[in-house]
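Supplementary notes for students who missed Thursday's class. We covered one full example, reproduced here. Read the sequence, then the structure, then the short commentary at the end.
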Amino acid sequence: MRITVKTFANILFALAFIQGCSTPQLNKSADLLYKEGEQFYQDGRYEDAIAQWKRVKESYQSPELTAKAELGIADSYFLNDDFIEAAAAYEDFRKLHPTHKEADFALYRVGMSYFNQIHSVDADQTPVKNAQETFSLYMSLYPAGEYLADVQEKNRECRDKQLQYEIYVGRFYLKTDAYKGAIARFEESLKMFPDSLRRDEVLYYLGRAYLEDGQKAKGREVFALLAAQFPGSAYIKDANKAMDALF
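Structure (token representation):
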């Protein structure tokens, strides 16, 4: 079969058209990619925003645009509740741009990323420790920072959760008759958290631990301190019951 010049040209045109339709457009500018990422972000399509902003980073168009994309990626992880990835992304931003105007915000969000991973008192306490250390660092680096008030509040919450864990472990020692372990835990808690609102609770369980360990005089001394320092504490009644049971 003979193919005319016109037919051959039509075939080439059709092939070119099909190839053009199937090939993605990869020549978008970094500015356009960033704007598309912004739109995805505004629409709550965080994974799509991350994908676009990663392409912006790979373009190396400008340090300023790269920094904006890096922070946008971290924000997208955070709002998508991917807090492990968010903490890492914000920390990377801080390391790469330590003097950036958003460096304090990035550190704040590192702390919040850890804070949002905190679960119950019997779960892994690493997020509590990481959050508290991050908030302490923020207060040290940015004593007049924009996020200071919230950081201070979250830091207090973290310290309270740390004390709750210490009480949880100490009570476990009490239940398993490991009284000396309980005493050591509660004594250390009083040193570590001298201003805690749960100090009366710690004193109560410390007094009980001394009584159970046979150190009655020491137990009485701790309960007397409880009554003197916290006259309205609900634990005084329980302390009196514990004393009555052993004397």
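Commentary. Residues 148-175 form the longest helix (28 residues). The chain has twelve helices and no strands. If anything here is unclear, bring it to office hours.
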